[in-house]
Design brief:
The chain is mainly alpha-helical and 499 residues long. Helix 5 links the parallel strand 4 and strand 5. Helix 12 crosses helix 17, helix 15 crosses helix 17 and helix 16 packs across helix 17. It is globular. The two termini are 43 Å apart.
């Protein structure tokens, strides 16, 4: 017990390919610990649907560790307080965890924890769990280092852990206990490693065959996409496990590219945590001012733009929607409705079960056009609907008030005359709202306002500096390890969800 090692689990809810767990087990008895932090779950980007997925994953992890000999210790409180209490009871010799690229709250928590560990003389060892590189000063060679990490063989779980008597494992609080609002999400994916491995297997053996063809339309994406994003966000499977499995099975090239860009976007927030709250290019600061009524209409799926509303209602129900529709939702909020990206970003963060701060906030800025280095995409929501749901099947499913309309009018019901509306049992403005904006006129105005900021030498000079700090580097990839073939990533998909 004089060499007791605490392994602090965070967004790495697994026993396989878990470096801190393996290294701690080599040095002495292990106390696996997860601290349920009420203050974290009170943050504006947290939701009950996320906690439900997390809780299911924790329950499975607790049992997996019990099968090794020592169950996961669950405690409610703040990390420093919990560790201080345990240290008064036990001779803790070291603290182990994975590095975390989380939201601003977790960044501040980890800085405070590091200070406490130094003050107490407690060694805290943090190990990487993906391709994000801490204290990175510049991006040259980043792709090679990503490949070096992903090329290493995933670590097996420890064979066993010594039992630590007289330590009650603890239980899981409810969402209400954590102060989370009721959050019906009937289509939510289930948490836990078993569910993640089942998805990975079915994707690589069967579903992934239609990946490239099916990932863009909400009609096909739910089956064609891997659906691994929440499992990667909470770490029930590791990115390295997924990379190796995909390469062994010769999975879709586009899928592996997105695994690479997963870390590329997270690296931006790791290198510049302020991007969660501040525009990447300062010239865009203060450009937008959120209208609360427009924000509420967008968030509730009642903008009067059927494809937008259907996507939002699907997201509310399932906690997931495919990458192109996420991009469209964010772009419509930013450009057509002129909503500040921080406000719309928080709505989406709470709705996404797979919320990953490093990806999310950088992609919100990309779609809002505030990075200064990416192409400004202003999606036409009607064209998107006609392209990806030409018969209005998806619209009909999620907007029952429009289900009696002929397919030709499901994306543009405002083109019906009052007599035609009556024929189809619809009164616009009563049964379904009229569009809150003219989407074509709103797009023209947004394009002019966004591009006006981009003119001038000063803007380009700052943009060049942003590109130097955060732009992708695709050269200098190392020779693949272990005979596992490597595929060079192509251009960034530039969307909010990468899987």
């Amino acid at each position: 017990m004089d060499q007791l090692q605490v392994v602090l689990f965070k967004r790495d809810l697994r026993i396989h390919d878990h470096g801190p767990l393996v290294e701690a087990a080599r040095r002495g008895p292990v106390l696996p610990l997860y601290v349920i932090e009420p203050e974290l779950w009170r943050q504006p980007d947290a939701s009950a649907r996320q906690w439900a997925f997390c809780a299911e994953s924790l329950a499975e992890l607790q049992q997996a560790l019990a099968d090794l000999g020592q169950p996961l210790l669950l405690r409610v409180g703040d990390v420093i307080g919990v560790l201080a209490g345990l240290r008064r009871q036990l001779p803790i010799a070291g603290l182990w965890s994975h590095e975390e690229t989380g939201n601003g709250w977790t960044y501040d928590r980890d800085r405070a924890l590091a200070g406490w560990c130094r003050q107490e003389g407690l060694p805290w060892t943090e190990l990487p769990q993906n391709g994000v590189i801490r204290r990175l000063t510049q991006r040259d060679g980043w792709a090679r280092r990503w490949e070096d990490r992903m090329g290493q063989a995933p670590l097996p779980a420890p064979a066993s852990l010594p039992s630590l008597p007289d330590l009650p494992a603890g239980g899981l609080p409810s969402a209400a206990d954590l102060g989370l609002a009721p959050d019906s999400c009937p289509g939510r994916q289930r948490g836990g490693r078993r569910a993640g491995l089942d998805l990975l297997r079915s994707f690589l053996e069967e579903r992934g065959r239609g990946y490239a063809r099916g990932l863009s339309s909400p009609l096909t994406a739910a089956d064609a996409c891997s659906r691994l994003s929440p499992h990667l966000a909470f770490g029930t499977v590791s990115l390295r496990e997924v990379v190796h499995a995909s390469r062994r099975a010769r999975g879709p090239r586009a899928f592996e590219e997105r695994l690479h860009w997963h870390c590329h976007f997270m690296q931006k927030l790791e290198s510049e945590p302020e991007l969660e709250h501040r525009e990447a290019h300062p010239a865009y600061a203060g450009l937008r001012s959120t209208d609360p009524d427009r924000l509420a209409a967008w968030a509730e799926g009642r903008t009067g733009l059927p494809f937008v509303d259907a996507c939002m209602r699907a997201l509310q129900s399932d906690g997931w929607i495919n990458f192109r529709m996420r991009a469209m939702l964010m772009a419509v909020a930013s450009h057509h409705l002129w909503i500040d990206w921080r406000d719309s970003g928080l709505v989406l963060a709470r709705l996404f079960v797979d919320y990953e701060p490093g990806i999310h906030w950088n992609q919100c800025q990309m779609q809002a056009g505030t990075t200064g280095i990416n192409t400004v995409r202003i999606y036409n929501p009607v064209k998107q609907g006609l392209d990806h749901d030409p018969l209005g099947v998806f619209v009909q499913r999620w907007l029952p008030e429009l289900q009696r309309l002929p397919a030709a009018y499901r994306h543009t019901p405002w083109t019906l005359s009052p007599a035609e509306q009556q024929t189809h049992g619809l009164v616009l403005g009563v049964d379904y709202p009229l569009p809150i904006v003219d989407h074509l006129q709103a797009a023209r105005e947004a394009r002019e306002r966004v591009w006006a900021v981009r003119r001038g030498t000063a803007f380009r000079t700052t943009a060049d500096a942003i590109q130097t700090r955060h732009g992708s580097r695709r050269s200098g990839l190392a020779t693949p390890r272990n005979g596992v073939s490597r595929r060079r990533p192509r251009q960034s998909p530039g969307q909010l969800s990468l899987f």
